[in-house]
Task: structure prediction
Amino acid sequence: MKQSSIVIDPVTRIEGHSKITLHLNEDGRVEEARFHVTQFRGFEKLCEGRPFYEMPSLMARICGICPVSHLIASAKACDQLLAVRIPPTADKLRRIFGLAQVTQSHALSLFHLSSPDLLLGMDADPATSNIFGVAEKNPELALDGIRLRQFGQRIIERLGGKRIHPAWIVPGGVSEPLTEANRDAILFALPDALAIAERTLEWFKSTTERFREEISVFGNFPTLFMGIVKKDNGLTFYDGNLRIVDASGHIVAQQLDPADYESYIGEKVEPWSYLKSSYYKPKGFPDGIYRVGPLARLNVADRCGTPRADQELAEFHELQRTAVLSSFHYHHARLIEILYCIERLEQLLNDPDILSKHVRAVARPNALEGVGAAEAPRGTLFHHYKIDEQGLIRWVNLIIATGQNNLAMNRSVLQVAKHYVHGNRLTPGMLNRVEAVIRCYDPCLSCSTHAFGEMALRVQLLSPDGEVLDEVARP
Amino acid sequence: MAGVGVAPRLAALGGTGEGAPSPHRPLHDKIHTMPRALIIAYGNPLRSDDGVAWRAADELEDKIVGAGVEILRTHQLAPELAETVSRFEAVIFIDAAAAGESNGHPGELRCAQVGLSEGPVRFSHQLSPASVIALARQLYAASPRAYAVTLTGECFDHGEALSPVVAAALPALVTRIEALIEQLVSPATVPPDSDKH
Result:
């Protein structure tokens, strides 16, 4: 059957550059949808030959939004190469760093990228569907977004010396202890951040009734969900074993050692994207489709371990008797995680040993292979290194959250396009929904590459014989 | 208008930008009594000429001593900068520009006053100078005088070295910023709307 296609290029309000292709049949119905990642990075190859101790700093350069997550996963892999147990205070400080990172990254996603959809609606004029439109309609929401992101960034800056690409986390621990002044400054700021998280969560829950239709078709299908949990199956971003649940909420696997990821995670390369697609090996490709990130973490976790977040998690689990399936609820999960991060920061900062000066274990390489895993804002992150006897990197494998969500993102785009894109008429609202479902996952393709030049959005709807049926262009 | 400073505890957490905070340093004695100015140097120092603003910031830091002028290095302009610029009376954005019809040839220096109006904003985590200033006005009722100074680059490949043509133009960029700072902090002098060299 002769087909036509719609291309959305670039997808806007996400981290990095991508495009979406919708393939239509002769009846004008969407048959296939693909989310293409058009950037090539090649970090795994360019690290080869570098000294292993450079890896955390190099890996932080992968991303300008979540450098701390790469620092953590990389340093944990290097800890394994050193074969050391890092000092307890270093462990807690790394957790603090990671929690600040998650807070600022989630704030960016929700307030700066997705709040225009949530506040102004999916059919809003694209020219005003941005932070200026939010500032016009609800200035307090816009201000809260700026404040909450600054809160996370300033913690990172105080601990790491700079907001982006800090090198404070090192193999064996952290490079400097926490000062009393910095601890007190962060603790002083916590109540304001908590208040923002609380009122934003309430605001979000008050808006969801408007999005019933979107909730029903925004990635609302059965998949597996995967995330790292603590020994008590509680929420964590730093350390633990993997747990996988299915769409009914039943446990498929648990206590999976992240170091054995190759035995249960497969990766498939598609010719139309630089982003690999991960799948759960026992179920094969593509049936092993799984999701990671906030929605998955809250589906696999039994508890958060902090009072307010636990209350919200219980309410979240009530959304569905099964696992919470709609990817629209990533936003909700993100806000609960922000709440958890702020509460957990307070717990850690009040730890009696948090100002200890013993924050780094020093050793030479004692192993030739190491795997570090952590929960980045967008999902589980794996760093796997092999070195030679001189400590030089010989092989690297990175599995990032966005790759693990790739199958689900593609299926979500198809579900939304089939529901909203019909016939020979395109509307901005229709296309915005196709993009908005991608924003639910908050894919991080590459923000560390400084882009320049114009990237206009132009979408053409072509008939099977090539006739332009409709066109939408954004300046 | 939304309240400014309604989160004083968050404000107390401080922070000025990426990298170690720069000390407040005056250009010369006049600055002690003049409005404060912020220099925002943005770009990627690992992408050759895209890092020219950071290089200019390094040189300006050596020349500008004392209180009155603050330098901030960043990779891109994000909405949070609206709050930062709202605390200054004058802002200078320094950036590398891609060669082309609108930016001229490599090594060309341009300075333009930042207006408030521009086209739609699609990447709201990466704003233009005009967007940052507009957001500062919208959210913080602040209207700092702002200028965008660009040096057109030649090479944006991976690397920390500037291309010869941009390296040769760097002293002129630094001199232009120094002159602009002097003009901005001098009540008797109003900088031109724009110029190019």
Notes: Residues 22-196 of chain B form a domain with the Rossmann fold fold (CATH 3.40.50.1450). The first helix of chain B runs from residue 8 to 12.
